Amino acid sequence: MKKRISILGSTGSIGTQTLDVIREHRDRFEVVALGAMQNIDELEKQIDEFKPKFVAVYDKNKADILKNRISSKTKIISSIEGLIEIASLNDIDLVLNSVVGSIGLLPTLHAIKARKNIALANKETLVVGGELITKELERYNVNIIPVDSEHSAIFQCLQGEKREAISKLILTASGGPFNNWELENLKDVTYKEALKHPNWSMGKKISIDSATLMNKGLEVIEAKWLFDIDVDKIEVVIHPQSIIHSMVEFKDTSVIAQLGLPDMRLPIQYALTYPKRLEMKSPGLNFMKYNSLTFNEPDYNKFPCLRLAYDAMKIGGTMPCVLNAANEVLVNLFLEQKIKFFDIPYYIEKIMDIHEPSNYNSYEELLEVDIWAREWITKNIR
Length: 382
Ligand SMILES: NC(=O)C1=CN([C@@H]2O[C@H](COP(=O)(O)OP(=O)(O)OC[C@H]3O[C@@H](n4cnc5c(N)ncnc54)[C@H](OP(=O)(O)O)[C@@H]3O)[C@@H](O)[C@H]2O)C=CC1
Ligand SMILES: CC(=O)[C@@H](O)[C@H](O)COP(=O)(O)O
Ligand SMILES: [Mn+2]
Prior knowledge:
single chain; alpha/beta; four-stranded mixed β-sheet; 15 helices; 11 strands; 45% helix; globular; binds NADPH dihydro-nicotinamide-adenine-dinucleotide phosphate; isomerase activity; magnesium
């Protein structure tokens, strides 16, 4: 039996690499549904190749244009309802959520309610609604298989181990494009410089997050929820080579690490085939090519976003939602060259100072806070 898959965010960096993996194993997977925001040219090519039954296009106008371009065998649906529908279809076995941003939360919730297996790349789902997601996973007896490389690494290190035996999780960070820059020189960096990740080719939002180290902060929160561990037991270590994707230290001080070339197709394939492993068309890791693997502490002065994310998680409640919403708006403004690099942590700190966090019980409460934070940042930017 082929595994029937729905891919949310199929036109992006993770989405297209997921289709690369599926292309290599056509006998094992069937693409039942695809979803994206507006890139209908790429979707048209994907429909032609994979013949999905459903395609969700968030942008209604683009959805209408696409309907006229393709055969009626594929049903086109639009807006958030489209994403929800393809996350909870009857005839799918697995949902791979690789949309970018907090828009990914609601489809994940619906996938859980529909008791689907979930391969999660959309880290914002857990950053914003980790507590709610955790409750729903328990209630519907559903598991999330992480796609994010660090979390996939930890997940692999924990196979056959007991959670009580963990003493800490060690998340590796490349340090991003500015790892070796002096703080003084970071003030006027351009978005083009910030997009040049040293090891990974990724979408724009996560690339900027890697440059500010907010990506690692979001990943600390993601790890807290995925592995049910206190943030004080999650350490970040700068490892510029991105060969060790993360590690787990156990009570007896033994450390287990997962290594590999920086290639997202490996964690994606593992999430699609778990608990099995399949061959990959990749040369694999040649240790003789690496003279040294290095490690050092993060510099919180150069990269305040990492500290802000730890703070937001420690405060809890709606604070991580505010951190994330503010960050999404600020990253866009930085990409549009409307603010400077250090305005990102500056405004996140400001909004965290004025936000009075509360506990939440529903998606609707989170949505209200998310909208408030986005409006506050937009109004208060200099
Ligand atoms: N890229 C990577 O290597 C890694 C990414 N991740 C995480 O995976 C997620 C995706 O990242 P990445 O692939 O780099 O991002 P990209 O920007 O490359 O792709 C984003 C995808 O999401 C779609 N999308 C955006 N908004 C909506 C919406 N409102 N409705 C439907 N679809 C939408 C885009 O559609 P369209 O093309 O039409 O705009 C696109 O398909 C992020 O959460 C990121 O943090 C985690 C680890 C590694
Ligand atoms: C590939 C992946 O998982 C990214 O999240 C990556 O980790 C980004 O690199 P940084 O370590 O620079 O944040
Ligand atoms: Mn990652």
